[in-house]
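A quick aside before the break. I want you to see a complete sequence-to-structure record at least once, exactly as it would be stored in a machine-readable document. Don't worry about memorizing anything.
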Amino acid sequence: MSYILVVILAGTISLFLSLYILVKAKDAPGGKSYIRVTFLSSIFTYAYAFELASTSLKEMKFWLGIEYLVMPFIPIFVLFMCMEYVGHKIKTWNYGLFVIPLTTIFMMQTNELHHFYYRTIKVDRSGLFPVLDLEWGPWFYVHAIFLFVCLIISVLILLKEFQKSLFMFRMQILLMVAGLLIPIIANYFYLNDWSNGIDLGPISLSITFMFHGVALLTLQMFNVAPIARESVFESLKEGVIVLNQNRVVVDYNKAVLNVIPTMSSHYIGKPIAEVLVHNPLLTEKLEEEQECDYTNLLESGATHFRINFSEVVNKNGSHVGKIITFVNVTEKVRMEEKLRQLASLDGLTQLFNRTFFMRKSEMIFDDLMLDGGSVSIIMFDIDHFKRVNDTFGHAAGDIVLTNVASIAKENLRVIDFIGRYGGEEFIICMPETSLTEATYRANRIRQMVEESFTIFNEEEILVTSSFGVSNVLMEAGENRYSVQQLIRQADQALYAAKHKGRNCVEVYEANEIFMQT
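That is the input. The structure line, written in tokens, reads:
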């Protein structure tokens, strides 16, 4: 009686595993075949339990017939499961294997007419409970050989995959191989009559699927299949993460550590959301599954990536996951930034060109209109610059321009910015600066320009400069001032400085504005 309960328990385990995969991973590689083989195994096992509980030959033969309606298909679905698991496509000719189990069913159900499967069927009552005493016919050996061949091929398929798999996959494969060896050993005992007439097949199959169940529950057997491994190469410069159809991490390469430094083998078999629990921005981008850009901010600096998505399809054409690729585009981004910077700079002095200076100044004024504050504009040019070009040549003039631009730039604050307004004329914008401070800064630059000199062809070139300064203090919401207006005022002050004899600083007073307008 206790052995019958063990058989029933084994059938229940097979049924549970079948239902579990049906709910959790039916579309995973090998999942459908696993569902079929465990379900058929449960029917086979329950029928064998009823056979053991029977007392008459008629009842035993009935349940034996039920067993043989499902049992012949089990080795084929085990083989298909292993083939699908490692990514082999089930080809049309493979379905020709069903000829043998179908023939086995026919031979078994019509055995009374020819006795090709069992020569005799009797009841042996010498043990603790009655069991069938079977004398095998020629087709029984065909069926037995077919079963062994299917199981052996399944084992060989898995062992071949073992050679090129990671540690996590190797543990799965070893569990599956160990499970498949059990029915081979059990049937060897049964065929040699070492099991006292008790068929160990139903129990051994359930133990097999218990091994697979361990792989399933602890190592995520079908959620962590090696189906996409060939698509991931450690030599790739791009970071790669492979997810299965349930967004569980299947595999990754070392390059992905540049994107996700915390990635480790510990996360294989776990949802990608768990890996990125501390990175909601990247989590959101990966959930959208749209090609996008991502910037990784680390202590070493910003690294820019282009995220691409591609489907993983097995040889049967079924969608089994997704490959996420992180392409490092940092150099490209830096080059684009450099090109944008070059587009905003004057080629000779490396100051902002007039267009970019105006755009940046207008942004400052937009902020002042919202929050209020002060801003100063300084315009200056090099006195009698035409004489430098006429006397020393344009090459010398270019060097003078560059030196004056460097002197001015070195005397500005971080928030100030300077541009070449045209020819030998320069312009400076100084946010949050009073008129007094701007005037002081202009005088300092004027003095340093006067005290410096440029060497060209072993001759010293001395120049001076004239400055015009304007300033405005705006209240929040005030919009009656513009950057163009302030530039005009600074230009008028510069004109006044030239009129006074050059090499000086003139200020455009606010009250004069109102008087003139």
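Two observations worth writing down. The chain has 18 helices and 14 strands. The longest helix spans residues 138-162. We'll return to this after the break.
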